[in-house]
């Protein structure tokens, strides 16, 4: 697997895939979502733009597909966005977020 950052969100298949991606990419934004979630759909274009415009790897975790994993991560509502830096969770926000706020959060991680 290459360490180049994908320019589009990466669909997480299972927990080991998630761990591999977190370990591979220094900066990661994880979008926990559900297909039935209206706010998740509103957030999707923003998440796609961040994947395209930043060095962060953007992971998409379908909480219905990966229920046990989402539960183990303490995900109680969607959308939830979690930020990782060098394999460690450093921040988490819940609900639809403004793109600028997300970019600021990513900048803070790397500062």
TrEMBL record:
Subcellular location per UniProt equals:
Cytoplasm
Coiled-coil positions are none
What the entry lists under Gene3D superfamilies is as follows: Glutaredoxin
Thioredoxin domain residues are: 1-111
- Example of a GO cellular component annotation carried by this entry: cytoplasm
Alphabetical list of InterPro entries matching this protein: Thioredoxin, Thioredoxin-like_sf, Thioredoxin_CS, Thioredoxin_domain, Thioredoxin_H-type-like
What top-level branch of life does the organism fall under?
Archaea
The record's CDD domains line, in alphabetical order, gives: TRX_family
Tell me which residues this entry annotates as catalytic.
37, 40
User: What is the first-listed, main subcellular location in coarse terms?
Assistant: cytoplasm
Q: Where is this site: Contributes to redox potential value?
A: 38-39
Enumerate the UniProt keywords alphabetically.
Cytoplasm, Disulfide bond, Redox-active center
Can you list the disulfide-bonded cysteine pairs? 37-40
The answer to whether UniProt assigns keyword Acyltransferase to this entry is: no
Tell me which residues are marked as the site Deprotonates C-terminal active site Cys: 31
What family does this chain come from, according to its entry?
Belongs to the thioredoxin family. Plant H-type subfamily.
Entries under NCBIfam families matching the protein: thioredoxin
Instruction: Name the chain's protein.
Output: Thioredoxin
Source species of the chain: Halohasta litorea
């Amino acid at each position: 697997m290459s360490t180049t950052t994908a320019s589009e969100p990466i669909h997480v298949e299972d927990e080991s895939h998630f761990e591999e991606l977190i370990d591979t990419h220094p900066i990661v934004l994880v979008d926990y979502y559900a297909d039935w979630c209206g706010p998740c759909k509103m957030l999707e274009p923003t998440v796609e733009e961040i994947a395209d415009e930043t060095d962060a790897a953007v992971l998409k975790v379908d909480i219905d597909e990966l229920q046990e994993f989402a539960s183990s991560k303490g995900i109680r509502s969607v959308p939830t966005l979690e930020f990782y830096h060098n394999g460690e969770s450093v921040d988490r926000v819940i609900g639809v977020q403004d793109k600028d706020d997300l970019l600021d959060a990513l900048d803070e991680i790397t500062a």
